[in-house]
């Protein structure tokens, strides 16, 4: 018989792929008999009617697509406000974890120095829960890519994430290559396990057609952020259309607040 655990999943994004992954994970854990709370931002795109799996929109974060198309100055000002909100979201998360006293807390990677510092602080608390992390991106992406670099690289960020990851009881990744990337970027981290990604069944409405029976369609899906290189894909697709005139490119997802749609 499986011991019933109290689990808190912390996902700052209330929509998009990371939120959908956390939602599927929470629903699956609840189906195994555990009590699960998904702590996230406002107006989450998916909700649960299972009393053993609750989606709690308590964090003062935002949806990636909010503010898309705003002027550059407004985007710059918004980044400052979002930095403040992100730090406040950590304070809310830590307070709820302290009050709930769950058996397990799972985070989702780390992008900023506060992520590593907060995980390390929580790991040093007396009577703390088991702490794990699904490291979707072992090295954070440079989401604005103002410098042209794909990954964020600075000493404070690297040291804080090294500290945070070393403080955890376990780290999960979604593939062998990601595990290799994590070990290369953070050689001090040794507790790494590869787990399946999931089947996206939360959106499945029927059996998908075999690839051989579909048309010449290329799909880009997910939040449109600079580091994903959508501009490069658009340039490349011109070459594709020259050789396959019937080919179509389908772009599905919300533009981030720092995406210049007019330029694309």
Molecular structure report:
By secondary structure, this protein is α/β, with parallel strands linked by helices. The chain is built from 6 helices and 9 strands. 35% of the residues lie in helices and 15% in strands. The chain has a 7-stranded parallel β-sheet with strand order 3-2-1-4-5-6-7, with helices on both faces. It has a two-stranded parallel sheet with strand order 8-9. The protein starts with 5 loop residues before the first strand and ends in a 12-residue tail after the last strand. The model has no long low-confidence stretch (mean pLDDT 88).
Compact description:
Helices cover 35% and strands 15% of the residues. It has helices spanning 17-31, 72-100, 113-123, 155-167, 176-185, 230-243, and strands spanning 6-10, 35-39, 53-56, 104-107, 130-134, 170-173, 192-194, 217-221, 248-252. It has a seven-stranded parallel sheet, with helices on both faces. It has a two-stranded parallel sheet with strand order 8-9.
């Amino acid at each position: 018989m499986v011991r019933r655990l109290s689990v808190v999943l912390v996902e700052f994004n209330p929509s998009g792929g990371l939120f959908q992954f956390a939602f599927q994970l929470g629903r699956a854990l609840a189906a195994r008999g555990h009590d699960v709370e998904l702590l996230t931002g406002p107006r989450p795109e998916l909700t649960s009617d299972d009393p053993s799996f609750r989606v709690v929109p308590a964090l003062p974060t935002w949806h990636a697509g909010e503010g898309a198309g705003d002027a550059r100055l407004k985007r710059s000002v918004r980044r400052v406000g979002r930095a403040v909100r992100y730090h406040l979201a950590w304070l809310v998360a830590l307070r709820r974890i302290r009050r709930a006293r769950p058996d397990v807390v799972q985070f989702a990677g780390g992008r900023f120095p506060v992520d590593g510092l907060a995980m390390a602080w929580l790991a040093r608390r007396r009577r703390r829960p088991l702490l794990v992390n699904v490291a979707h991106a072992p090295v954070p992406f440079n989401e604005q890519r103002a410098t042209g670099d794909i990954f964020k690289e600075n000493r404070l960020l690297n040291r804080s994430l090294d500290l945070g990851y070393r403080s955890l009881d376990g780290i999960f990744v979604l593939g062998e290559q990601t595990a290799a990337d994590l070990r290369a970027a953070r050689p001090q981290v040794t507790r790494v396990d590869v787990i399946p990604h999931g089947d996206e069944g939360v959106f499945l409405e029927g059996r998908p057609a075999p690839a051989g029976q579909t048309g010449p369609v290329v799909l880009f899906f997910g939040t449109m952020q600079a580091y994903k290189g959508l501009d490069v894909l658009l340039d490349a697709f011109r070459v594709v259309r020259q050789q396959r005139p019937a080919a179509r490119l389908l772009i599905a997802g919300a533009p981030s607040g720092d995406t210049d749609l007019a330029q694309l």
